[in-house]
Amino acid sequence: MKKFIFFFAVLAGSYTMTAQGFGGAISGGYLSEIEGFGGTVDLVYNIDEKWSVATDATYSVADSGPTRNKWFIVDLNARYKVFDEAYLLGGGEYLSITLKSGGLGAGSIGPEIETTNSEFGFNAGAGYKYKIIDNVSVFTEVKYVIIDPAGYFHARLGLHFDF
């Protein structure tokens, strides 16, 4: 009886594993709040044909005069496939902002000042994947992030790899 239960568990587990998938992606995108570009690395876990969970990390740097603005963003999103390879997403975001001011004369007259702040927010958006070959797809994604004090748009384009 134990062998039958074990065999059934292995069979059921292998059946559910075929419906699941794991992937990774790299992308570049535009962030409207800092008016700059950033690079993103994603990990995606497909739960079934419709649902997936994705986490991504984005790094962006923008310079405006003597001030350097660095953003590090980590998202955790649920995705729901609505049609073909188009999906809706929603989830949470952690944002760490570091502002570095060079002072007067780019630091030659006054001291450099660096401040760091972090916020939590929510995001919602949509995306689309277009398969190029068996395990490589091109994707685009647009989301709006609701975060204090103001929200921003994040649009990106990248390559997704299925493992």
Description:
The protein is mainly beta. It has one domain (20-162): Beta Barrel (Porin). 11% of the residues lie in helices and 69% in strands. The chain has one helix at residues 2-19, and strands at 21-31, 36-46, 51-64, 67-83, 86-101, 113-133, 136-146, 152-162. Strands 1-2-3-4-5-6-7-8 form an 8-stranded antiparallel β-barrel. It is elongated.
Structural class, judged by helices and strands?
mainly beta
- Could you name the CATH topology? Porin
Low-pLDDT parts are 1-19
Order of helices and strands: HEEEEEEEE
User: Number of helix segments?
Assistant: 1
How many separate domains make up the residues? Answer: 1
Task: Provide a concise account of the structure shown.
The protein has one helix at 2-19; strands at 21-31, 36-46, 51-64, 67-83, 86-101, 113-133, 136-146, 152-162.
What attributes characterize this protein structure?
163 residues; mainly beta; Porin; 11% helix
Write the layout of secondary structure elements.
Elements: H1 2-19, E1 21-31, E2 36-46, E3 51-64, E4 67-83, E5 86-101, E6 113-133, E7 136-146, E8 152-162
Antiparallel strand pairs: 1-2, 1-8, 2-3, 3-4, 4-5, 5-6, 6-7, 7-8
